[in-house]
Amino acid sequence: MEKVSKITVERTSGEEIILKLWFVDRKWQRVGFEIIEYNARLIFTKTRNWIGIFSESDRRLINPGEEAILHVSKTVYKAMVRWAGSILNDRREEKGG
């Protein structure tokens, strides 16, 4: 059974949004998240001074052809930036390969 990392973010409206970790690529300093409720996958990249979404191609649909929200609220965006930062700034060595 696959263990999935996820967190719940409460928007100012009280709506709860579940963020699911999609992938981590330490070599390219990228982290991907899925938001099932929004039909969205968002990819965050770490640069020298910033973590964020830098390209429209970093906003993707989970299920093409279905409605999606690819531009999220500040509360949800900030939660993803914090989570991506904690993952990418972790200094532990990668295992395997």
Distance between the termini: 21 Å
Number of domains: 1
What are the low-pLDDT stretches, counting only 5+ consecutive residues below 50? none
Overall pLDDT, averaged?
A: 90
Helix proportion range: 10-25%
Q: Please give the radius of gyration in angstroms.
A: 14 Å
Describe this structure in words.
The chain is α+β, with helices and mostly antiparallel strands. It has one domain (about 5-90). Helix content is about 15%, strand content about 35%. It contains one helix and six strands. Strand 4 and strand 5 (about 50) form a beta hairpin. The longest helix has 15 residues, at about 75-90.
Search tags:
97 residues; alpha+beta
List the helices and strands and how they pair.
Elements: E1 6-10, E2 16-25, E3 30-35, E4 40-46, E5 51-52, E6 59-61, H1 74-88
Antiparallel strand pairs: 1-2, 2-3, 3-4, 4-5, 4-6
Structure in a nutshell:
The protein is of the alpha+beta class and about 100 residues long. About 15% of the residues lie in helices and about 35% in strands.
